[in-house]
Amino acid sequence: MNIVNLILAIFIPPVGAFLQVGASKHFFINIVLTLLGILPGVVHAVWLVASNQKG
């Protein structure tokens, strides 16, 4: 787990998700979740970083 990705996932969820998985389906899911509410986007981005998902 990269600490920079984790911090970005908390404060700017789509950027943290993009740095972790690139322009994949998880990135676009994170954008939708963030638009629906910041908390779902943060949870999803932190999950991506913590589980070490790759594109």
From TrEMBL:
<dbReference type="GO" id="GO:0016020">
    <property type="term" value="C:membrane"/>
</dbReference>
<feature type="transmembrane region" description="Helical">
    <location>
        <begin position="27"/>
        <end position="50"/>
    </location>
</feature>
<protein>
    <submittedName>
        <fullName>Proteolipid membrane potential modulator</fullName>
    </submittedName>
</protein>
<keyword id="KW-0472">Membrane</keyword>
<keyword id="KW-1133">Transmembrane helix</keyword>
<dbReference type="InterPro" id="IPR000612">
    <property type="entry name" value="PMP3"/>
</dbReference>
<dbReference type="Pfam" id="PF01679">
    <property type="entry name" value="Pmp3"/>
</dbReference>
<keyword id="KW-0812">Transmembrane</keyword>
<comment type="similarity">
    <text>Belongs to the UPF0057 (PMP3) family.</text>
</comment>
